[in-house]
Specification:
The protein is α+β, with helices and mostly antiparallel strands. It contains 15 helices and 22 strands. It has a 5-stranded antiparallel beta sheet. Strands 2-3-4-5-10 form a 5-stranded antiparallel beta sheet. The longest helix is centred in the C-terminal third of the chain and has 21 residues.
């Protein structure tokens, strides 16, 4: 489904010839297939310079021609900035510095708006019954005269364009005005023309007529666009949104950000910070995940947040912490809002208990494989399965899989503006690599088979508190193939589970289970079997109190009967 718009424009004095207009409204016939989207622009020549109207028209035409000729591979902000440079050169072609025009241009594409601006033309947004000015005037005041624009097409060899962007909301109304309109109409008067049911053309005409009646100067021009219907969100929309957000310094407890009251710091790592917070709009307790600003310059760092948010919005699973939607326009920095779900980190649980029981391991292992199977069906390979990226909800006896920022996601790799594929040991982890499949040491890409290997390693660690091939660092290289059976460390582990773990942790990926679903099915079908009898040489069984208590009770009962009979 495409983006549906209602657009209109008006000018006073009226100009019959379209080539004589100082505005531009282009809505492609096939909005879904056109990568550039719709373009609206207004320009105004500076009266202190010769031929202001002709200069404005030249700037508008050069902008439109350049924008729709931009390569499809360019991000919209780059295409818009390059189009301003083209407009600047077009105006200067008539004489360097002898002509000048201010201009504002708005691109509406999929679910985003992108705005370019120089000078004192303006762009307004009406949303939720409020009017907001999206531009700032680049002018210097003059006594008794109109302010003089400091930035405009034609003034200098290169132009410094303000580029801003944001999310669209159905019902949004954008209004582009020249100074002849907004110098005599304040925000309240502009708002009075923006009734909810008025067509865009009627709004544009209303504004120019009122400006003319109020004594507006020069060519009074207005462009209007109303967002009637938004298309479904795509991976590309999310990528453009997330990468456009700045990486800010994480807030301190007690501060407020975008309507979230920041609480205690829950977790701190090299990559991110987790804060408990209160959403003042809903009153609910949430978790905010902020990136480490020191890593902001690393290529593709914002993509890790994109991946987690994409998975949280697209995949429903009780074993994933849900990512909560954020109202468009609310988020001013790069962070993720997640459902507050208390639990214990699995690595901490293993350290506290030494190892988990077979029953507990089978329960959590089955849940892990279930969510992995679901992720793989959606084209998502986790790539970072280990105890630290897993949490246990003790009340519900439920596993929660974390660490999705390193995932490889097929739809995102195909659609993101700057895709990054996370592969190999060097990009997955520094330090301990005990959970990584051996093929990754050769810098092979992560696959469902590498997830199956890591899942097998995690189940082994739950059962034993150890790693099947011992601890491995990135300097050690891949494991040597000497796997210690889990039953050697935990005599409660049955033979069938030993064999299953050996298959999952096979060094050759072709010898592992074909899928996470097959692994889960094998685990479930075999878990009803009784534990195998320990073989000769295996560790002795644990002492049981009933072995002592029962003989003592029998001895006491015999003594009591003997006393009664003799007495």
């Amino acid at each position: 489904m495409p983006l549906f718009l209602d657009t209109g424009f008006a000018s006073h004095p009226q100009t019959l010839e379209r080539d004589g207009l100082c505005c531009l409204v282009v809505v492609p016939n096939e909005m879904t297939r056109n990568p550039h989207g719709a373009l609206l622009a207004v320009a105004e020549g500076i009266a202190d310079y010769p031929q202001p109207d002709e200069t404005a028209r030249d700037a508008i035409k050069a902008l439109g021609d350049s924008y729709y000729a931009a390569p499809e591979s360019w991000p919209i902000d780059r295409a818009l900035d390059e189009s301003y440079q083209a407009a600047n050169q077009s105006v200067r072609a008539h004489g360097a510095g002898s002509c000048a025009a201010t201009m504002s241009a708005l691109v509406l594409r999929q679910r985003r708006w992108i705005l370019g601006h120089v000078g004192d033309t303006r762009v307004w947004l009406r949303r939720d019954h409020q009017l907001k000015l999206l531009t700032r005037d680049h002018v210097v005041p003059r006594v008794g005269r109109r302010p003089l624009p400091l930035r405009a097409c034609g003034l200098r060899e290169s132009i410094d364009t303000d580029i801003t962007e944001g999310d669209l909301v159905e019902g949004d109304v954008f209004v582009l005005t020249t100074s002849g309109v907004h110098d005599v109409l304040n925000g309240a008067l502009i708002m009075s023309c923006l009734t909810s049911d008025a067509p865009a053309q009627r709004v544009a005409e209303c504004l120019t007529q009122r400006a003319a009646a109020g004594g507006g100067h020069g060519q009074m021009t207005v462009c209007v666009a109303r967002i009637e219907k938004l298309p479904p969100e795509t991976a590309l929309d999310m990528a453009e949104h997330m990468t456009a957000l700045p990486v800010a310094t994480p807030p301190e407890p007690g501060e407020s950000l975008d309507g979230f009251q920041i609480g205690q710091l829950m977790h701190k790592s090299r990559q991110y910070r987790l804060y408990e917070a209160i959403d003042t709009e809903s009153g609910s307790t949430v978790v905010l995940k902020f990136p480490n600003p020191r890593l902001a310059s690393e290529p593709g760092y914002a993509d890790s947040f994109l991946r987690e948010e994409w998975i949280g919005k697209r995949i429903e699973s009780p074993y994933l912490i849900k990512t909560l939607p954020v109202r468009p326009g609310r988020r001013s920095a790069l962070y993720t809002v997640m459902l507050h779900q208390p639990g214990e980190n699995l690595a901490a649980r293993i350290k506290r208990k030494g190892k988990l029981s077979v029953r507990e391991t089978l329960l959590f292992g089955g849940q892990l494989l279930e969510v992995l199977s679901q992720l793989h069906k959606e084209g998502v390979v986790h790539g970072g399965i280990r105890a630290k990226n897993t949490m246990i909800d003790k009340k519900r006896k439920q596993l929660l899989l974390l660490g999705l920022g390193t995932s490889q996601i097929a739809p995102l790799e195909e659609m993101t503006v700057n895709p990054t594929v996370t592969t190999g040991v060097s990009s997955l982890l520094s330090g301990s690599c005990s959970h990584l499949a051996p093929e990754l040491f050769a810098d092979d890409p992560i696959t469902p088979q590498t997830d199956i290997y890591a899942a097998g390693i995690l189940l082994y660690r739950m059962l034993t508190g150890r790693y099947p091939y011992g601890r491995i660092s990135s300097k050690d290289g891949p494991p040597d193939g000497n796997m210690t059976p889990a039953s050697a460390c935990n005599p409660e582990v049955p033979d069938w589970l030993d064999q299953l773990l050996a298959q999952a942790c096979a060094l050759n990926p072709h010898q592992r289970m074909a899928s996470a679903a097959d692994f889960a099915e094998a685990l479930a079908s075999q878990s009803g079997r009784p534990a195998a009898t320990p073989s000769a040489g295996a560790p002795r069984a644990r002492f049981r109190w009933e072995w002592l208590v029962v003989p003592l009770l029998a001895t006491g009962l015999a003594a009591y009967l003997y006393t009664v009979i003799r007495g």
